[in-house]
Amino acid sequence: MINKKKLWSKKESHNPKNRIEEIKQEPVPKHIAIIMDGNGRWAKKRALPRMAGHHEGMKTVRKVTRLVSNLGVQALTLYAFSTENWKRPKVEVDFLMKLPEEFLGTFLPELIEENVRVEMMGDREQIPAHTLYAVEKAMKETAGNDGLVLNFALNYGSRSEIMAGVKNIIRDAKSGILSEDDLSEELFSRYLMTRHLPDPDLLIRTSGEIRLSNFMLWQLAYTEFWFTDVLWPDFTEADLLEAVEAFQRRTRRFGGLTDK
Ligand code: V07
């Protein structure tokens, strides 16, 4: 009879703890970005209202944040609400806009304990005051943390971010702070909402859609993409580890020649 234990002991990757340790032997992505899709579909499959899917998806956010933080990743950007999402039924929008408060009400103490810094990017104008208040309070309370940056894209759209950057560059050029010769990709990046973050090394999109949906168009120029059919509420730690392992296999092949 084959001794399973013996077979496993070669590479103990069946054990999540060991799997994490193995992953940490090699470079992990500095910045992971995720399009958390499939919450509505998850609910539909169970004959539940879409809100149930969004709520379940929030639990996945917590799980994934903990694991990503343990892996030593610097930043995790999550697409929580796009500028397109306002087109959804008002009851759904209202529900979604309560999730940041619920999430932070439940998990902020743990995030502080884990040295996580909460941030957000997106147009603050249309976000309801109660939502913005909760997020900005969390940002203030975690501003001194120097662990994982947990960056929520909330009322975010990439084209609008780029246009705002262009306008600010023109403003600074007109006022004489900038001249045409100063313009470079590096300078342009500093006019985007991600100015303080490295570009994502890994983008994950769940639920089988193979598109970017106006998410970080500039920042994803050199990013590795990982698409999975798994719906966001069903996304597990093992799925995240699989994506990171695939990232490591791909980048390993280029043997240090990957930097743009
Ligand atoms: C939202 C849960 C995850 C799946 C995607 C849609 C629904 C966490 C937040 C959040 C945002 C800001 C913040 C803290 C938490 C959130 C929205 C939707 C709008 F500071 N999950 N989650 N925000 N969903």
Keywords, separated by commas or semicolons:
260 residues; alpha/beta; Undecaprenyl pyrophosphate synthetase; 10 helices; binds ligand V07
Short overview:
The protein has 260 residues and is of the alpha/beta class. The chain contains 10 helices and 6 strands; from the N terminus they run H-H-E-H-H-E-H-H-E-H-E-H-H-E-E-H.
Could you walk me through the main structural features you see in this protein, from its secondary elements to its overall organization?
With 260 residues, the chain is α/β, with parallel strands linked by helices. It has a single domain (27-249), classed as Undecaprenyl pyrophosphate synthetase (3-Layer(aba) Sandwich). The chain is built from ten helices and six strands; from the N terminus they run H-H-E-H-H-E-H-H-E-H-E-H-H-E-E-H. The protein has helices at 4-10, 16-24, 39-45, 50-70, 90-96, 99-113, 129-142, 158-174, 185-189, 237-253, and strands at 31-35, 75-82, 117-121, 149-156, 202-205, 224-227. The termini are far apart. The model has no long low-confidence stretch (mean pLDDT 94). The site of ligand V07 has 20 residues, from helix 4, strand 2, helix 6, strand 3 and helix 7.
- Classified in CATH, the superfamily is Decaprenyl diphosphate synthase-like
CATH architecture verdict: 3-Layer(aba) Sandwich
How many domains? The number is 1
The largest sheet is: 6 strands, parallel
Each distinct ligand: ligand V07
CATH class: Alpha Beta
Element layout with pairings:
Blueprint: H1 4-10, H2 16-24, E1 31-35, H3 39-45, H4 50-70, E2 75-82, H5 90-96, H6 99-113, E3 117-121, H7 129-142, E4 149-156, H8 158-174, H9 185-189, E5 202-205, E6 224-227, H10 237-253
Parallel strand pairs: 1-2, 1-5, 2-4, 3-4, 5-6
The structure holds ligand V07.
